[in-house]
Fold Ferric uptake regulation protein.
Amino acid sequence: MIDYDVLIEKFKSIIKENGLKYTKQRELILKFLYEHDDHFTPEELNSELKKIYPDENIGIATIYRTLTLLEDSGIVTSISFGTQGKKYEFGLKKHHDHLVCVKCSKIIEFYDETIEKKQLEIAKKFEFQMTDHTMKIIGICKNCQKKQ
Amino acid sequence: MIDYDVLIEKFKSIIKENGLKYTKQRELILKFLYEHDDHFTPEELNSELKKIYPDENIGIATIYRTLTLLEDSGIVTSISFGTQGKKYEFGLKKHHDHLVCVKCSKIIEFYDETIEKKQLEIAKKFEFQMTDHTMKIIGICKNCQKKQ
DNA sequence: CTGACTGCAAAATCTTTGCAAAGAC
DNA sequence: GTCTTTGCAAAGATTTTGCAGTCAG
């Protein structure tokens, strides 16, 4: 996993390259995602940040704008839940895919080399310039099966 | 591909089992998706249906309600585009995955046996009761690459 | 200083809901 | 007839935008 200091350097250089500014809000949002290995909606991030930094008062619009910036920079990635919006996670870790539980919304990550390779082949076959790929296995997790 | 008459029978029996009613609106929406092998947003469906059946005046709410019903019945499936909503397609064809172009939003379908098998294995490994799975390869399609 | 960023509130999207009238069975 | 469905418009939910003040470089 990328070191926090290295991450900040990387972020700062992206900021600089694009004539943007390095602000406290942006840092705090990035820091939170870096430190929490999980998936969050913008609204969840907003309330979590309010808990941790009650004095900062980061606006929800800033959360959205920062997440977009971070996603465009490739630092965070998102997973979408149809109508119910998106969840974001820190993105500079090994590529992986997701298992999503329809009952409790829990997300489990996995990685499979065969699938990764196949995806490349398929993109090539259709002459697609692949920028990303996602795979979601939807179902009922072990825990929720027990409850039934 | 399932025959249209068989499809209607299937739909009618689902309707009956659930104490629902078979209405013209529901039929027209299903018919449209059956006849058009493509992916549509609710809004697109709405305007297409208005073009084909200018006298029917199907409300957008009915489109949403019917799509939800059809999706729950397993007759249509949806693919989500993050914040920008969902697209629906007729679902009773061979399972397949999607290539999505970020430039023109075109969707190409593909099927790969190896990936299908791997998904089953992974679900099993995590003791997930898989109900569905999706895979999206995101990138720039052949056509849009040329334009650049 | 200058131009980007922020919080706020308003606006824009997209989707769902309440309700009276219409339609299926 | 009874109970579901419909279209409409209003309400909700989520995300984006405009703007004046603030802040980073």
Observations:
- Residues 50 and 57 of chain B are 7 Å apart (CA to CA).
- The radius of gyration of chain B is 17 Å.
